[in-house]
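Intended use. Records such as the signal peptidase I entry shown here are meant for training and evaluating sequence-to-structure methods. They are not intended to support clinical decisions.
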Amino acid sequence: MTAVLLAAAGIAAAAPLALLLWANRTLVAVDVVGHSMEPAFHHGDRVLVRRVPAKRLRVGDVAVLGRPDTGDLRDLALIMGSVPPWVVKRVAALPGDPVPASVPARGGTVPPGHLVVLGDNTGHSTDSRVWGPVPDDRVLGVVLRRMTSPRTPAA
């Protein structure tokens, strides 16, 4: 009887720890920098991101990617003082999909191992229209939801 109670207590203690470890490896918070995703997300918003491989992304998902070469973001560096480590963009096309007309690319389809990402606010977005298709190894994950916003401070 005592062994059963100890086992049950061990399981009860291990379950929250396992959940915490899973969340730590799977979820990450990222700050939105700039105005390229307005109106969906605004500068200063914090979003919850689930780490997923690029193959799990779908057209229309909002993805977080490792920043492109800083030379491609020199205007943002001048305005913000630095280049953010992550960019938040909407997936517009996946490997094998037609490349949107506004994106320079060789051939008519997105090449294997790449994706096309665009900001929602096209007038204020540096995205695949500048970079071309982005290597899918830069994908951190997909945005699940907004956590905080400068307009609605957290309690």
